[in-house]
Amino acid sequence: MSFAEIFQQFITEIKQTTWLEFIAVISGIASVWFSRLENIWVYPIGLVNTIIYIFISINGHLFGEASVNLYYTIMSIYGWILWAKKDAQQHHVVLITFSSKKEWIEELFFFVAFYVVIFASLSFLKNHFAPGAIPWADAFASSTAYTGMWLMARKKVESWYWWIATNIASIPLYFVKHFAFTSVYYLILLVLAIMGLISWQQKAKHAKA
What we know:
The chain is mainly alpha-helical. The protein contains 8 helices and no strands.
């Protein structure tokens, strides 16, 4: 496919974007923006995004992404509670920190475990129910997102590395599935994730000092 054909497909699909997808994209961008600022509004606004994308992903046979957004929904409630928790002096209990070497190993195992399970599940679905599924790509985007969300709830700087990987994988994945506006959305999230990484690194270094 030439660049002109890709561009034409992009324009056509942008015009066909539903209002539901527009709402999901806008709420998703706002959620990541609040996350970068370490603002608790990341969770209530994020819930709007994840619930809509469960529906969108299922319709597009992106079952791994659908499972991710269901997981996001559950983890958003967990993260909301965790971020709101304060001690007797009204200081937030969970602070932005770097992962230790042990935690890095745990994160990698977490990612690999989810990748294997999701890949196997999607391969089965592709062979029996959903021929349009893309197991390896969907599993990668999904498992990196699972890891990123888990770490974000614990305010780990490394969560942004996983979000960056998720966004890079999701840009072509959704474009191929004819969700051009969502593909652009993940491009915007990629930029915000890089900004978030820099911001959280600075905060973690300041807190450590």
